[in-house]
UniProtKB/TrEMBL annotation:
Matches recorded under SUPFAM superfamilies: ADC synthase
Reaction(s) the record says it catalyses: chorismate = isochorismate
Cofactor(s), by name: Mg(2+)
NCBIfam families referenced in this protein's UniProt entry, alphabetically: isochor_syn
Protein's name according to its UniProt entry: isochorismate synthase
Subcellular location: Plastid, Chloroplast
Occurrences of domain Chorismate-utilising enzyme C-terminal (ranges): 287-543
Classification of source organism: Eukaryota, Viridiplantae, Streptophyta, Embryophyta, Tracheophyta
Length: 584
């Protein structure tokens, strides 16, 4: 073992393995709605995936892990030196006797005395090195103690490749799945985290473009780069469980295979518009089908005894471009304007990348403390301070927006009260400003009675009325019957579980992107009494503009009647002055 290694270890008594929880992905999903085939030869293009690891769902979720450790090596001045030190530590582990446990997870980390963008590190790695993930919290993220040290550092963003252990299944995310993830986590090792996402509607059929994600997909990265304020960390993690037929030796060999493929030479990610030309764009649904869906929703909403008060309808836009779309370049461009928003990327093997830039927090748990927020009633920002204030006052005084906002806030409050001993709303109604938009906003805080109630929080607060509607089950049923595509992880929970903390955002403002094969861009809008289908369609166009502004329209290739994405600059001005922009 390298000299100077600091240990942060928690050990449990090993229990006899019980019958395995079956998690086979061999069954084929049914495709009822329209699917998009990104590739006909994915097995050839993904031949450089990281070595396979174990599906943590296949272990006994009630059997504690034998050891959970973080080993911190002495700090170095550069990523290249960090990789050398990490390789040396892994070699020492190979030469040493294996730990005397049938299961465990060990994180080796090397601090770097320089703040380096995690996205740049990820961009430097081969884009076929999968799975990979990226998660960037908001600037207002809370401080956390790194490895029990007395000083506090803020974790800015995390990038990872390979999976020490992953968790996925075709059936809906369950309490047993949550327990399967939690057994690999510990309060004593706060940076061992599982990053991933859950489908918006786990009961809906899975379309081919989302098949690799399953009903949920989480991963503890094999190799991880943590960007902190003023410094960085590079880490390698191994996990094993003999009961799941994944031994310590197999885990070490898989980690070494991934390490050999990594680059320590950083590449600056382009953060300006790549302006790739759009060759074709196709909306699902098209305008006529959209009009019919909105009309049907309004008929139900306007009844004397309505089943629906609000429903959120969405659209998928398939974009084909002349040049490759690099998902990480797109994400870097979104990050520039994404202050106080979450940026994320999740890409399992044999899959496109799910990326997004979302302002909406689903919940954040810090031990027993829980917080969530309500966002609704969106407006564009003004071009001047005076106009911005005028738009803000219009939003605050709008009865329609207040009603929609109150539905979201009170629904979240009731769901938190069902699990928490107390709930505080402060502020009850305020304005939250972002680079391009401003929202009505409320922050809700509560206290869990037990940390195991985290699963109850996740299952109760999702989906919020902001992305589904109200009442929830009636809105979800209408969406399932009406929408002609699979939302997948769009509008679902996206984030991470940790031993001490967990945080999830809502996967809106998002797209499914494949380098060389185009993108699926998702947008949604809330339908309430008084909605107009044509104005809502314009809203969808505006929502997708954060992605389409990164591209140029190839006008000669567009013909009459063809679905198209058009320049939004003039529409933004008009919509900002007279229309409420939905959050989705």
């Amino acid at each position: 073992m390298a000299v100077g290694v600091r240990h942060c270890t928690i050990r449990f008594m090993e229990l006899e393995s019980s019958s395995l929880m079956k998690c086979s992905l061999s069954s084929s999903p049914l495709y009822r709605k329209q699917s998009v085939h990104f590739s006909n030869s994915s097995s050839q293009r993904y031949n450089q995936c990281c070595s396979l690891s174990m599906n943590g769902c296949q272990g006994d979720s009630r059997s504690p892990i034998g050891t959970v450790e973080t080993r911190t090596l002495p700090a170095v001045s550069s990523p290249a030196l960090a990789m050398e030190r990490l390789n040396s530590a892994i070699s020492d582990m190979i030469k040493s006797d294996p730990p005397p446990y049938n299961s465990g997870i060990i994180r080796l980390e090397v601090p770097i005395e320089e703040q380096i963008e995690a996205l740049e590190w990820l961009h430097a790695q081969n884009h076929l090195l999968l799975p990979r993930c990226f998660f960037s919290g908001r600037r207002v993220a809370s401080e956390m103690c790194i490895n029990g040290a007395s000083s506090h550092s803020k974790l800015v963003s995390v990038a990872g490749v390979g999976s020490a252990v992953f968790f996925t299944h075709l059936r809906p995310f369950s309490l047993d799945d949550w327990r399967a993830i939690r057994r690999f986590l510990s309060k004593k090792c706060p940076l061992i985290r599982a990053y991933g996402a859950i489908r918006f509607d786990a009961t809906a059929d899975i379309a081919s473009e989302w098949s690799a994600f399953g009903s949920f997909y989480f991963m503890v990265p094999q190799v991880e780069f943590d960007e902190l304020e003023g410094s960085s960390i590079i880490a390698a993690t191994i996990a094993w469980d003999n009961a799941a037929s994944w031994t310590y030796q197999r885990a070490i060999d898989a980690l070494q295979a991934t390490i050999w493929q990594l680059s320590s030479v950083l590449i600056t990610v382009q953060k300006k518009n790549p302006h790739s030309h759009i060759l074709d764009s196709t909306h699902v649904p098209g305008k006529a089908s959209w009009d019919n869906a909105v009309k049907r929703a309004l008929q139900i909403i306007s009844r004397n005894d309505p089943v629906l008060i609000k429903v959120v309808l969405a659209r998928s836009t398939r974009v084909v471009t002349a040049a490759d779309i690099d998902p990480l370049t797109w994400l870097a461009c979104l990050k520039v304007e994404g202050e106080n928003a979450y940026q994320f990327c999740l890409q399992p093997p044999h899959s496109p990348a799910f990326i997004g830039n979302t302002p909406e927090q689903l919940f954040h748990r810090d031990r027993l403390s829980i917080c969530s927020e309500a966002l609704a009633g969106t407006r564009a920002r003004g071009g001047s301070e005076l106009l911005d204030l005028k738009i803000e006052q219009d939003l605050l005084s709008s009865a329609k927006d207040h009603n929609e906002f109150a539905i979201v806030r009170e629904c979240i409050r009731r769901r938190l009260e069902a699990v928490c001993s107390s709930v505080l709303i402060e502020p009850k109604k305020a304005i939250r400003k972002f680079t391009r938009v401003q929202h009505l906003y409320a922050r809700l805080r509560g206290r869990l009675q037990a940390e195991d109630d985290e699963f109850k929080i996740l299952s109760s607060v999702h989906p919020t009325p902001a992305v589904c509607g109200y009442p929830t089950e009636d809105a979800r049923a209408f969406i399932s019957e009406t929408e002609m595509f699979d939302r997948g992880m769009y509008a679902g929970p996206v984030g991470w579980f940790g031993g001490e903390e967990s945080e999830f955002a809502v996967g809106i403002r998002s797209a499914l992107v494949e380098k060389g094969l185009g993108a699926l861009i998702y947008a949604g809008t809330g339908i309430v009494e008084g909605s107009d289908s044509s104005l809502e369609w314009e809203e969808l166009e505006l929502k997708t503009s954060q992605f389409t502004k990164l591209m140029k329209l190839e006008a000669p290739l567009l013909t009459r009647g063809q679905s198209r994405i058009i320049n939004q600059n003039q529409k933004v001005v008009a919509l900002a002055s007279n229309y409420a922009l939905p959050l989705k």
